[in-house]
Amino acid sequence: MQTQLRIGVDLGGTKTELIALGAQGEVLHQQRVPTPAHDYDAIVRCVVELVDAAERQLRARASIGIGTPGSLSPATQQLRNSNTLVLNGRPFQRDLEAALRRETRLANDANCFALSEAVDGAGRGARVLFGVILGTGTGGGVVIDRRVWSGRNGVAGEWGHNPLPWPSSDELPGPACYCGKAGCIETFLSGPALARDYALAPGGADADAREVAERAGRGEPQALAALERYTDRLTRALAGVVNVLDPDAIVLGGGVSGIAALYPELGSRLGRYVFSDRVDTPVLPALHGAASGVRGAAWLWPQNPAS
Fold first, then answer.
1. Which of 135, 193, 230, 251 has its CA 20 to 30 A from that of 284?
2. CATH number for the domain including 148?
3. Containing domain of residue 99, as a range?
4. By CB neighbour count within 10 A (0-12 exposed, 13-18 middle, 19+ buried), where does 238 fall?
């Protein structure tokens, strides 16, 4: 096997993307196809066909990493918590390995995002990195020494399903979450959550998160107020991470992470909530943007194959 060739596959609910990286992280091949989300066997075939096509073109055999919503249960080795429902309760990694005829590494998509940004992204050089996804949902991943830390139960970094820290009375009990609880961080910090908060406030209107940010940029008072509430909630949620993990860097990804106005405020506000005399933790936008997930899947194999 040419061990310096890495293939990453990002299995999303609507699209599946493959990337092939060279030894220095250079992109050698990339392809995206629709995900056959309602057919388990077709998903396995889709991944195999993408890998076969890439290896034929590059004339080399690669290591394979897969990023997917949800995670493998350490107890059963079956996938769980995936929004591609046909994957849940299935031995997805085992079936892929049989179809690809080689060992395959699999990780949650937020973990792959964090790994990408730790290896050669915005958090390069950080020994401990916490990666955050602020999109349709809210997730996180932990990387230590350029390796994903998934934890004993395989849920390390599942930041979005902790309660929002230091809630005010009007934030309680919090919006209902699909996980069955109320007041999860995800229900306050996802893109739809920002849009809902803006719409429900006096003078608000229907608008997605991007539009709320644009209206705030034009000085609209209702949008500015919604963005202020969001920034304070995000600060509190990140302060909880710093108080537990104290990472060297925090990197934000997902659609909401593109709101540039968040970053100057986050850095200056963390000190209000973190249990320290000073806070130097940088909060950074992702360098690789939407490509971080698939790049991180490729980096699930370490640079030195023997390590």
1. 193
2. 3.30.420.40
3. 6-114+291-298
4. buried
Going through 118-165 in order, the beta strands assigned E by DSSP cover 128-134, 138-144, 147-148
Reported as a pLDDT band with limits 50, 70 and 90, residue 244 is: very high
3-class SS at 167?
coil
Residue 73, Ramachandran bin (φ over 0: left; ψ between -120 and 50: alpha; else beta) = beta
The residue that leads in pLDDT, 231 or 83, is: 231
Neighbouring-strand partners of residue 104: 64
Assigned token pair, 49? 């066909």
Kindly report the length of the chain: 307
Asked if residue 303 is part of any domain, the answer here is no
Whether residue 307 is predicted with pLDDT greater than 60 in this model: the reply is no
In this structure, are 28 and 87 located in the same domain? yes
User: What is the SS3 assignment for 88?
Assistant: coil
Q: Is the pLDDT of residue 303 over 80?
A: no
Query: Does 99 share its domain with 140?
Result: no
